[in-house]
Amino acid sequence: RSSSRITTSGVIPAARTAGRAVHSASPRENRVLLVVDVQNDFCPEGALAVPGGHELPAIINKLSRRFAHVVLTQDWHPEDHLSFASSHPGEKPFSAIELPYGPQILWPDHCVQDTRGAEFHPDLRLEHCELIIRKGYLREIDSYSAFFENDRTTPTGLAGYLRERGLNRLFLVGLATDFCVAYSALDARRLGFEVTVIESACRGIDLEGSLEAAWKQMEEAGVVRA
Ligand code: VGL
Ligand code: ZN
Questions:
Q1: 72-120: per-residue pLDDT in tens?
Q2: How high is the ipTM of this complex?
Q3: 163: Cα separation from own chain's centroid
Q4: Smaller CB count within 10 Å for the chain: N or C?
Q5: Ligand 1, atom 2: nearest CA belongs to which residue?
Q6: Nearest alpha carbon, ligand 1 atom 4
């Protein structure tokens, strides 16, 4: 029998198709691994270092082999972003202010578009990642969640992508547990997805009890803590 495939664009030699078929999951596989913000600035030595952030690439690389579908998020701010303390003279990082859409914690400048800090950690090996969702790219509004900006109403488009492709079982990993991971998990539940957060593949910032509060909210919202 011939092991070549005929496609609309011609015949693909068997060796090439075999090389690409690294995942055994069926095409109907409905689970997706959502890898949140595993970027240099959230790792030790980064601008907004999360303790242990650098441990995640190895853990997530291994985990990701069990998923046919992998989606990444990338925090991606303009250099004068309103979530930066530096955009508010007199304010210090980690203080809170009120913005038109609600309370906002002010952060050190981080994940500025096209800088090394905004790049994914170099050890993250997710060649089969099928979508990268950038967020926080509008100057006036922050976006912790992969689904909505911090006004909780402006969508990123991720829900539409997942629904259209039938990916309704989400597994979340990444940084930071109590901010972007938690906001994404809560929004995903609100949108009707089945959500598991894999704790061993997340690391938190923990500002004044925010880590424990985030887990409480997630558990109350029906997020599975695995
Ligand atoms: C994040 C604070 C500011 C996160 C992003 O990825 O959790 N936290 N920007
Ligand atoms: Zn950010």
A1: 999 999 999 999 999 999 999 999 999 999 999 999 999 999 999 999 9
A2: 0.99
A3: 17
A4: N
A5: 179
A6: 180
Q: What are phi and psi of 144, to 5 degrees?
A: -75, -45
- Per-residue pLDDT band at 162 (split at 50, 70, 90): very high
The answer, yes or no, to whether any atom of ligand 1 lies below 6 A from the CB of 107, is: yes
User: What distance in Å separates the CA atoms of residue 135 and residue 74, rounded to the nearest whole number?
Assistant: 6
Please give the model's pTM, rounded to 2 decimal places: 0.88
Element housing 99 (H / E): strand 96-99
Could you tell me if the CB of 148 is within 6 A of ligand 1?
no
Q: Which amino acid is at 189?
A: R
75 lines ligand 1 (CB under 6 A): yes
CA of 144 to the centre of ligand 1 (A): 6
Helix 210-220 and helix 182-190, axial crossing angle in degrees, nearest 10: 20
> Which ligand lies nearest the alpha carbon of 207?
1
Please give the structure tokens belonging to residue 110. Answer: 């981080």
Structure confidence at residue 143 (pLDDT): 97
pLDDT of residue 28: 57
Q: Which ligand is nearest to the CA of 110?
A: 2
- Residue carrying the six token digits 């938690």: 182
- Distance CA(123)–CA(44), nearest Å, equals 14
Residues in the chain, total: 226
Q: Are strands 169-175 and 129-135 parallel, antiparallel or unpaired?
A: unpaired
Instruction: Give the bridge partners for 155, in sequence order.
Output: 148
